[in-house]
Every structure is written in structure tokens, then in C-alpha cells.
């Protein structure tokens, strides 16, 4: 068996690693035998040299089996959705209870912010009292009783991925197709799913900026997942503009609450949420086709059932039971809120730059140990073709931070002729 440094050297030189060698390296990630520098070097070697399909499958399985693998006995299908990450992508928060309201069970294991994108786990951490890392017994109980639970990785589920995930965030290796595939699917396989829908983002705010890259990632995830026995489909969705008009942790929670209660349902966000949910219901046999599934999801929203389930989930995991009724009482607010105005029509958006501006405000990390300020970010972000004169509202901890964020926001927008635009759902890959 090769030493960790020999495994790194082999991949650095473009050699193919055998499954036993990969499994040994993953065991080292789990038990600490592989150091931080070695883990970072391995990630960089994979980033530049890539993994063949058998290596990708071996890495995914080894990380999934590095901890416990759940099995469920529930009166409905166990389903999940995962996004490759973007700006204003808070779909998971309303989607899990919407699917639960339609008879599915959603044990959603989410991640922290990665690179310039926000993380569902960081968003939930802005809710006072919410336990995003409960024990597995609590996780299983809440899923069974409520219908869904959104948590972060625990020490028991895919611990090797949890370690490598944090290292990728700060070593410039986030965009690796191979590491993204293994990271996502290891968590999903460990969660014991029966169906998975992937939201692969493509555009200026995505890790996969080109359509060919996004297709390759979608096909990689579907192929590896199906090979592991997990029914999976992928939607490639647009990230040339923020999906929601809010970016920042507590701000995106507030946006999700507005969506669930009907206070605000923006068309692009709603279209992506319904499309992903429809794929989940069809995969789980809860609807005969996507049109029927969309109708069920709309009913779950308009009836208030999805909002009720979300509220029950928050309370069951330690958060306030009246969060939906009084969000301002619980969600932290930034002391400086500044509108940013610009005459003209929005012709294009550097969406990644908006994500980086959120990090600059303190809403993301530059090191794994960095604390996050949940209050900061942007609301009322303008979309392509917007001619209202408002680019967005900065939420900052102080005036100096607001100055920097305002400059960043202005630089992210290009004014000119209205763009023709493109649909929020670009294409579909896999079974579904």
C-alpha cells in the first residue's frame, strides 16, 4: 500500500489510482493519518490531472463508506435535491418541505459556503437555536415525524468528505468536476436516498461557467450515481444572474420565508424550485409526470402546508416555533443598509462578483476557521433587463464595509441594451 505522499505523487504524474489505494487515502482523511498539506496537495493533483470514471466511483464510494450509511423504513420515498452552488440559491429551504407536503421524505445533508457561493448550512445557522448538526437519532426522528430535516454533515456521515470539503474551499480546487461529483454523491449515498435530483448551475455565478462544463458535470454525477444504484436526474439551470434577489445568509432565509408564505414569489426562483421538485416527485413515484407533480407542489405552497412543515422542522431542531410569523424578531439585521442606484437598463451581470462582494462583507470565508456575519449581503438585486434604477441594497456591518460593497456591486453590473435573456431551466440530463 502506498504512503499518502506516494499516492499524491502518482496522481500528480497522471497515473491511475486503484480502488484500494484510493480507499486507503480516504481512510487517512478520516483518521488523521493524512495531513492538511497532503489533503490539499491531493485535491490540487486531482484538479489538474483528473480522475477516470473508475477512480471517481472508487473515491465516491470510499467517502460514502467512511462513516455510517443510513437505511430508512418510512411510508414514502426518500428523496433529495442538491445544487452545485450559486448566488441567491436558497431553493433547498422551501423545496424540502414542499416535497414533504406531497408525501416524500427529505433527509437533506447540506454544506457550508464554498468559494464564492453561499451554503445552506450557513443560512440555517443564522436562525437562533437551530441545531444544524444534530445526532443521527434526532435527524432520523425529525425526518420521520416532520417529513424533512436539513442539516450539515455530522461526524458520522461521510466524515472524509467533510474534511476535504473544507480544504477545497480555501485551496482553489472547488471547481474540480471529479471532487464535486465525489463530494456530492458521497453525502447522498450515506443518507440512504432512493432518488436524487441535481441542480447543476451554469453561467457567470457558477463553478461551471461554460455549458459544456456543466453538461460534463451533470453527466458525471448521473453516471456515477446510477452506477451506485441511486436513481438520479440533473437539471442545468441558469446562473448568469442571481437566482433570488437576495444574497447573504439571514437575508436568504428571510427570502425563503417570504416565498413559503406567499409574500413574494419571483418567477425565476419559482420556476427552478418547481422544476426540481417535479423531478423529485416523479423519481419517487409520487406523481405520474412533471405537469402533475408541479400542480401538487403549487397546492403544497398555496394551501400553506409546505410553510407549516418548514415551521415544524425549525421547531423540531431547536429553532423558534414562530419564525414564519415574526422573522424580524429572530433573524439578525445589519446596522447599515444602503440603496445603490444606477440609471439605465441592466445588460449583464458578473454574478460571481456579487458572491465575492458578500464574502468581502463578512458573509463568507477565506479560511476554514473564519466566522461568518449572518447579517450582511444584498437585497433587491436587479436582474437582466431591469431599468428601475436600483441595483440593490447593501446590508453591512459598518459604513466602510458598505462603501466597498457598493463599489463591488456597481462593478458587477453592466448597463446598456436589454438582453434577450435565457430560460431558468437550460436542459435536463438523466432519468428523473
Question: TL;DR?
Answer:
The protein has 432 residues and is α/β, with parallel strands linked by helices. It contains 17 helices and eleven strands. The longest helix is centred in the middle third of the chain and has 17 residues, at 211-227.
What does this structure look like?
The chain has 432 residues and is of the alpha/beta class. The longest helix has 17 residues, at 211-227. Helix content is 47%, strand content 14%. The radius of gyration is 21 Å and the shape is globular. Helix 10 (211-227) links the parallel strand 4 and strand 5 (231-238). It has helices spanning 4-12, 19-31, 36-49, 53-64, 92-101, 120-124, 136-146, 159-169, 177-190, 211-227, 249-261, 267-283, 290-302, 305-316, 327-330, 351-363, 399-412, and strands at residues 79-83, 106-110, 148-152, 195-202, 231-238, 336-341, 346-349, 377-379, 390-396, 413-415, 425-430. The strands form four sheets. Strands 1-4-5-11 form a four-stranded mixed β-sheet, sandwiched between helices. The protein has a three-stranded antiparallel β-sheet with strand order 6-9-8. Helix 5 (92-101) crosses helix 12 (267-283).
For the structure shown, list the relevant keywords.
alpha/beta; four-stranded mixed β-sheet; globular; 11 strands; 432 residues; three-stranded antiparallel β-sheet
Mean pLDDT: 93
Count of alpha/pi helices:
17
Euclidean distance between termini CA atoms: 40 Å
Low-confidence stretches: none
- The quaternary state of the protein chains shown equals single chain
Judged by helices, strands and strand pairing, the structural class is alpha/beta
- Strand sequence of the main sheet, in spatial order? 1-4-5-11
Identify the overall geometry.
globular
Main sheet properties: 4 strands, mixed
Helix content: 40-55%
Radius of gyration: 21 Å
Amino acid at each position: 500500500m502506498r504512503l499518502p505522499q506516494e499516492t499524491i505523487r502518482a496522481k500528480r504524474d497522471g497515473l491511475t489510482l486503484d480502488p484500494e489505494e484510493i480507499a486507503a487515502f480516504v481512510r487517512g482523511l478520516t483518521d488523521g493519518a493524512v495531513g492538511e498539506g497532503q489533503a490539499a496537495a491531493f485535491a490540487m493533483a486531482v484538479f489538474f490531472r483528473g480522475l477516470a470514471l473508475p477512480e471517481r466511483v472508487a473515491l465516491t464510494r470510499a467517502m460514502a463508506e467512511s462513516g455510517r450509511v443510513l437505511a430508512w423504513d418510512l411510508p414514502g420515498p426518500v428523496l433529495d435535491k442538491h445544487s452545485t452552488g450559486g448566488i441567491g440559491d436558497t431553493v433547498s429551504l422551501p423545496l424540502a418541505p414542499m416535497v414533504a407536503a406531497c408525501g416524500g421524505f427529505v433527509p437533506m445533508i447540506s454544506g457550508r459556503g464554498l468559494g464564492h457561493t453561499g451554503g445552506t448550512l450557513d443560512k440555517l445557522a443564522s436562525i437562533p437555536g437551530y441545531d444544524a448538526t444534530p445526532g443521527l437519532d434526532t435527524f432520523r426522528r425529525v425526518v420521520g415525524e416532520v417529513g424533512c430535516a436539513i442539516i450539515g454533515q455530522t461526524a458520522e456521515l461521510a466524515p472524509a468528505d467533510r474534511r476535504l470539503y473544507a480544504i477545497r474551499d480555501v485551496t482553489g480546487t472547488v471547481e474540480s468536476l471529479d471532487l464535486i461529483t465525489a463530494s456530492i454523491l458521497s453525502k447522498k449515498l450515506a443518507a440512504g436516498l432512493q432518488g436524487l435530483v441535481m441542480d447543476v448551475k451554469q453561467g457567470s455565478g457558477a463553478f461551471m461557467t461554460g455549458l459544456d462544463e456543466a453538461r460534463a458535470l451533470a453527466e458525471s454525477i448521473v453516471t456515477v450515481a446510477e452506477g451506485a444504484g441511486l436513481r438520479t436526474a440533473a437539471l442545468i439551470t441558469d446562473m448568469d444572474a442571481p437566482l433570488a434577489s437576495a444574497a447573504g445568509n439571514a437575508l436568504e432565509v428571510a427570502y425563503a420565508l417570504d416565498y413559503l408564505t406567499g409574500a413574494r414569489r419571483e418567477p425565476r426562483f419559482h420556476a427552478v424550485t418547481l422544476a426540481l421538485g417535479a423531478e423529485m416527485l416523479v423519481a419517487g413515484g409520487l406523481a405520474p409526470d412533471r405537469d402533475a407533480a408541479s400542480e401538487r407542489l403549487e397546492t403544497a405552497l398555496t394551501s400553506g402546508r409546505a410553510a407549516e412543515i418548514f415551521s415544524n422542522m425549525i421547531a423540531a431542531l431547536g429553532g423558534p416555533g414562530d419564525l414564519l410569523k415574526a422573522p424580524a424578531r429572530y433573524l439578525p439585521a445589519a446596522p447599515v443598509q444602503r440603496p445603490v442606484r444606477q440609471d439605465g437598463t441592466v445588460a449583464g451581470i458578473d454574478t460571481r462578483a456579487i458572491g465575492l462582494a458578500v464574502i468581502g462583507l463578512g458573509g463568507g470565508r477565506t479560511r476554514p476557521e473564519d466566522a461568518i456575519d449572518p447579517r450582511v449581503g444584498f437585497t433587491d438585486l436587479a436582474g437582466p433587463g431591469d431599468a428601475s434604477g436600483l441595483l440593490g441594497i447593501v446590508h453591512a456591518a459598518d459604513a466602510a464595509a458598505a462603501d466597498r460593497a457598493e463599489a463591488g456591486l456597481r462593478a458587477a453590473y453592466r448597463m446598456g441594451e436589454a438582453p434577450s435573456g435565457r430560460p431558468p431551466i437550460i436542459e435536463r440530463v438523466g432519468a428523473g
